[in-house]
What does this fold into?
Amino acid sequence: MSNALDDLFENNQQWAAATEAREPGFFTRLLAQQTPQYLWIGCADSRVPANELVGLLPGELFVHRNVANLLVHSDLNALSVIQYAVDALQVKHVIVVGHSGCGGVRAALLNQRAGLVDNWLRHVQDVRDAHEGFLAGLHEGLRVDALVELNVLEQARNVCHTTVVRDAWQRGQAVVVHGWVYGLHNGLLQDLKLTAASSEDVNLAYATALAQLHQRWRQRNAQT
It folds into this structure.
């Protein structure tokens, strides 16, 4: 195995040349400003390329990724990203995006040990434990993806409860929080219907999305 990554540099040169040929002056314009309207909080999984999924160019989507798309209130990294996105970049939408077949969620569900990351995934296990009765009622093969969606709802609600978002809402800034899931099997995004544009929206949005999630997965369970 070579220590050099010449193929990646070659790919980069080809991409830069093709981009500039397609849109002359692209990089000059990109250098001048960063004005994304969206903050994407997603999983670090390499199969989920945020910009490509929604057809946006560099500079149009601000992205934060970690294992299992978590928003933990003690995670200063994620909180700093949200603060910069909301306060400095003035993004209009914060979108938490999980994906089907998430390895981190699977490990958390099944208590699979993987090392240091087990401590991080404890937060997903908290979600699992909070919804233990519902998950236990599903066929085993459905539980991972059901927990993926439950985790998205919980993390989106966590975003709503951050001081950054709450302060933005209090001063009248337009910020909408969403919860989505991406299907690795079909390449499609699904809106989980947790959409909150104010502090007053959060509890009802969460309860409505959770009720719809329960109904959807119970129907799938009945068909299995």
The chain has a mean pLDDT of 95. The chain is about 50% helix and 15% strand. Residues 202-223 form the longest helix (22 residues).
